[in-house]
């Protein structure tokens, strides 16, 4: 037995690893297909061996070949075998291969349920995180139903790393198994006020994505989001929240009146152009929805137009286009405010970008 083990280790010295494969492909450009065909045969031989380290080396090479467009679906059982390894370094290779080659209709997924459940309940946060990351790429309706409670339990983990991944994974679960949303919603709501900013940001992302389909269901969360908007310094999260408020305002006019001041403060203070644009967009939407109940909003419109002028004067063509686009929205309700910047819009008619010229022409026509 010992002699056989020594012999196996000696033979492994001559196995090509991933680096050798990549180098070989680069050195065989003229007969690449023939070279890869030979490598495939070598890999199949390696997968027949009992040594799991040899198999993981073979799976690593197959994963690279899959990225080049080669079909590796025939190695599904071997991938699952490497995924089940007790060594994290080998396990990681298997889960990476699964995330790239498995899909929600893969017949072999039924063999992974108990293995993934075991990983989710692991005391090692990186093993649980690895399973969550990989599962998000190929989760099926059956896996979502069978593992939803295990993933939901991870929302209460003491480790922020796990809570964040579990929150994001729940969104994939909801898409495949909508029945999980109702029992999970209270726990998800709690994560909006999680002490860890990463978990909090993940929860905001999930709720905002869910609200895109039916904003009315998330109107009750407006106080929580309002608190986040007025206290957070995370620009990415603020953009998500402000977009959500833009969708909620038509459903609740009183909310719009409360939003004007904090949005105006953000417009004054932020140096991030992406956040500035979303604030202006939402202010415009809010003012349109509450125009009958709030006549004294000329100052807010003037502020928006002045900031949009900065965007239009910017050398970045994308910002210039977005500035003109937002100006056209203001033109519908406050034409005089836009006409005051007619000179700038006329300059855009000479821009080298055709889309900017067309957008400026539309504005002038509207005037």
In words, what does this structure look like?
By secondary structure, this protein is an all-alpha fold. 73% of the residues lie in helices and 0% in strands. The protein has helices at 2-12, 18-27, 32-47, 52-67, 76-83, 88-101, 113-120, 125-138, 141-153, 160-176, 181-191, 197-211, 222-231, 235-248, 253-269, 273-289, 298-313, 317-333, 335-339, 342-347, 354-366. Helix 16 (273-289) runs parallel beside helix 18 (317-333). The longest helix is centred in the middle third of the chain and has 17 residues, at 160-176. The radius of gyration is 28 Å and the shape is globular. Keywords: Membrane, Protein transport, Repeat, Transport.
Structural class: mainly alpha
Strand content: under 5%
The mean pLDDT is: 90
Q: Tell me the major beta sheet.
A: none
Terminal CA distance reads 89 Å
What is the tally of helical segments?
21
Q: Please compute the radius of gyration using only Cα atoms.
A: 28 Å
Order of helices and strands: HHHHHHHHHHHHHHHHHHHHH
- Helical content (DSSP H or I, runs of 4+): over 70%
Q: For this entry, what is the oligomeric state of its chains? A: single chain
Number of beta strands? 0
Broad shape = globular
Show unreliable segments: 3-13
Pfam family, one: Adaptin_N
Domain Clathrin/coatomer adaptor adaptin-like N-terminal: 32-367
Subcellular location: Endomembrane system
Organism: Ignelater luminosus (Cucubano)
